[in-house]
Amino acid sequence: MADYRQIMRDGIWDNNVVMAQMLALCPLLAVTSTATNGLGMGLATLAVLLTSNFVISALRNIISNEVRIPVFILLIATIVTLVDLTMNAFLHDLHKVLGLFIPLIVTNCAILARAESFASKQSVVPAVVDGLMMGLGFTLVLVVLGGVREIIGSGTLFANASPLLGESFSFLDMRLLDDYRGFLLMVLPSGGFLALGFLLAAKSWLDHRKADLAKAAVRAAEIAAINAASEEAISEDESQRNGEKP
Amino acid sequence: MNEMKQKMAYHPILLGGIALIAGAMLVFVDAGTRGPIADRQAEDLRASLTQVVPASSYDNNLLEDTVVLHYPLDYADHVAGITFYRARLSGKVVAAAFEVIGMGYSGAIRIMMGVRSDGSIMAVRVIAHAETPGLGDKIEKAKSDWITHFAAMSLEKLTQQQWAVKKDGGEFDQFSGATITPRAVVRAVHKGLTYFNAHRAEILATEASHG
Question: What is the DSSP letter of A34?
């Protein structure tokens, strides 16, 4: 039986596409100059990942091992093209922003990696959950990275969010720093590498801290056990001594 | 042996079958989205045309009153040619809008320019570019008013030498840290204007290619 808790943990944190597997860095660095672009790209990737995991898992019993890679690539390329056409027709403003990057989802190795290492071996429901969680983890990193770069680079957050999410989300569009002259480095790809580096360091720090705390808790328990044992021994000793001198 | 054959035949059939299904889905979705995509692109074109030729200055349908010239201009290939969208006020052509392309710091800069029938510029707008954010992107109207300085310029008003950025002895400002981008835009606009003047009679007089 699939362990959904573990799938969720893996997708969002432990085995995150970007922060643990280090995949899909090209689209990541290219689109995350603003949080809005990051969110749009993340959602498009999420849709592709979800669909490809579903289709590949559903077909896993008829796909033979020898031709699985071409079949996966064919399926992924088809799904991406369908998403591209649909977005161009019905989410045209967003497509103008992301248009260049959507065909690149085909080459996003994270999607083939999930197809190969997860969806082709699991039944449909866990595969769909895995696609959803991996996609969410990727979107999360894109939005955080885009947000950091946008705030430092141009002093805004979620600029132009309304074409993506609709007018009701225009409140997200914030100008955080007035009269900010911008910090060009963060908007350029090199800023993406810098921000990603700090993000990875932060994740590593959190993971290590958690491991250290767990280790410390174990040691504290051990020490408490030793203390308790020695106290017992001492008190036994004392009672024996007391017994010797009546 | 027989089993082996069956197995060998299975792979191509599987691959072919999936390719067939994928192809069918693509055809289906393409047919379904072709109309909406064409509509959206026409809207985009109308929006960029309105930026260079104000809607109040004409009373015809710009998108349908076009003339295509096939004379070579650097980037334009002979086959596709350059499309001129003509604005008419009570039947008389008052202006034409067309697209020119400049080669900037990071690839093509697509520029829409509107020119009055007397050869003076109505407005110039950049419709797509990939220049460096924060440096070269000041050619956008949203970022700076630099692009508005082309208004009312013409070949008579400025000499060949003046159609350049100040660094090259011309009339147009460059941006601090970015000379290549404005230089490319100035050059492209100048070329476009020269082209318009050379073929003015044809652009203004020819019957519409369609519609």
Answer: S
What interface predicted TM-score (ipTM) does this complex get?
0.70
Q: Which residues contact B88 (CB under 8 A, 6 or more apart)?
A: B58, B59, B60, B65, B94
Average pLDDT over residues A104-133: 89
SS3 annotation, B34-62: HHHHHHHHHHHHHHHHHHHCCHHHCCCCC
Determine the residue of chain A that is closest to B19 in CA distance: A74
Report the run of H or E that residue A156 belongs to, with start and end.
strand A156-157
Residue-level pLDDT at A136: 93
Best of B6, B8, B18, B143 to disrupt the A interface (most A CBs within 10 Å) is B18
Distance separating alpha carbons of residues B125 and B144, to the nearest angstrom? 12
Judge: B40–A88 Cβ closer than 8 Å, yes or no.
yes
Domain limits, chain A: 4-183
Read off the tokens for B88: 């008419």
> Over 70: is that where the pLDDT of A34 sits?
yes
> How many Å apart are CA A243 and CA A175, to the nearest integer?
80
- Residue B132, pLDDT above cutoff 80: no
Alpha carbons within 13 angstroms on the beta-carbon side of residue B203 total 30
> Which residue did the predictor score with more confidence, B82 or B114?
B114
Q: Is A73 on the interface with B (CB under 8 A)?
A: no
